[in-house]
Amino acid sequence: MSETQNAVNPLGTERIGKLLRSFAIPGVISMIINSLYNMVDQIFIGQGVGMLGNGATNIIAPISTVAIALAALFGDGLATYFSLNLGKGEPQKASKAVGNAVIAGAGVSIMLAVVVFVCLSPLCRLFGATDNILPYALDYGSITAIGFPFVIVAIIINGVIRADGSPTYAMFSMMAGSILNFGLDPLFIFVFKMGVKGAALATVISQFINLVLNIAYLFRFKNIKITRESFRFQFSVAVKLATLGVASCLNTMTATIIGMVSNNLFNHYGALSKYGEDIPITVFGLCMKVSMLFLSIALGISSAGRPILGFNYGAEKYDRVMKTLKLMLLSSTVVMAAAWITYMIFPLQLIHIFGTGSPLYEEFAVKCFRIYLMCSFVGGVQICAGSFFQSIGKPALATVISLGKQVIFYIPSLLLLAKIFGLTGLLWAGPIAEAAAFILAAVLLLRETKRMGKRA
Asked: Is the model's pLDDT at 194 over the cut of 50?
């Protein structure tokens, strides 16, 4: 890309508000659709199979999160590297990165699928499966593992499609798979009577369609040209992409650790309570799925800002970087405040989406939403801070923010409060970790923006 082309790139010239909207609207829709993949499964499973079926998807969710984390490792790293190099006027490097990310993603995804398929039963036990839930988890997980290569490579390509300036196409490819999933779920579960196996099969088929549509875009990039040379694998390029994407990967991977620890704790302390071992682990998983649906809007906003932040930081247009960050923070905070109101006022209505249960099931659901999500209204700040540092090529700070909430604050709170307050203590770990992560993110953002202001 020549310097003249670089100068007229809309990422560096278009009004920030208009630019962020153009990326955010399809980006938010894409993130919501991605969240709905598993959520729709649970809705239909709850109606067609029952509480134990939903418990099974909550056991498999941390395993599936490993696949999403590996996709983020190369996908978010690719999107950042792509935007930074376009900002610097070096499209050849961006083209090489696309091919290397696809090859690396395909390789690790196949290895993950094999490991999960071979070790599924002990993995389910590791992630807290009870005797009642285990058979359903094995049925669901054995099919879900087949789709790991599809979903990982699709996510990697989808991110760079947005960075290339085609967020609408990225949204369309995800929407096509999701619409297919919505149609196949009831067909396989209710018509063919396949239960959780049907839900898993519907998801895998939808992921494959999403992958095909994303691969088709490789031949129509706006800012680069993909050639055979782009797919010549270079270990150094793959490492560079992984370095830039490590914050997103660790942030997502810690969700797997959280899932393992929290599922086992809810299993243990639930068995000691009036709710029993199956209700807490199922309800907590559903609570997380609902919160992720709302959180996906904030994630969509932060993702939309990445190519704008990366391009302008690479082009040393720091005033535009600051404007983008401020708008991201404001928008995501408004979204999370609206989500918090919904959690606090309508917890029972939210849990009923997945089917009804016993009075104890509903009682714990209300308690879970109102305590665990008590401080969720500040969650957008941490998300935007992580995207900001990742976009400007400072993955170490993005990693600190990611690990701060999940590892430094949340896990110790879980272990300590559970010993003191039992099952209720597990729920209080959520707002404590959220508040602490907000303070950490705010401090790091203020420090970095002051430094940037001196260079502007």
From this structure: yes
Count of CB atoms situated within 10 Å of the CB of 455 = 7
Whether the CB-CB separation of 325 and 304 falls below 8 Å is answered with no
Angle between helices 51-88 and 148-163 (to 10 degrees): 40
Q: What is residue 422's three-state secondary structure?
A: coil
Nearest alpha carbon to residue 204 among 282, 158, 148, 286 = 148
How far apart are alpha carbons 405 and 329 in whole angstroms?
A: 18
Cα separation, 413 vs 402, in Å, equals: 16
CB 289 within 8 A of CB 39: yes
pLDDT tens string 413-453: 999 999 999 999 999 999 999 999 999 999 999 999 998 88
Cβ proximity of 374 and 396 under 8 Å? no
What contacts 450, CB < 8 A, 6 or more positions away?
A: none
C-alpha distances (whole Å) from 137 to each of 147, 286, 287, 338 are 16, 15, 19, 34
Burial class for 39, CB neighbours closer than 10 Å (0-12, 13-18, 19+): buried
Assigned token pair, 121: 């039963």
Q: Cβ(63)–Cβ(210) under 8 Å? A: no
The Cβ-side half-sphere exposure at 339, using a 13 Å CA radius, reads 26
165, 121 contact by CB (below 8 A): no
Compute the distance between CA of residue 318 and CA of residue 338 in angstroms, rounded to an integer: 31
pLDDT digits (tens, 9 = 90+) for 86-114: 888 899 999 999 999 999 999 999 999 99
| Cβ-Cβ contacts under 8 Å for 374 (sequence gap 6 or more) | 430, 431, 434
Whole-angstrom distance, CA of residue 166 vs CA of residue 156:
14
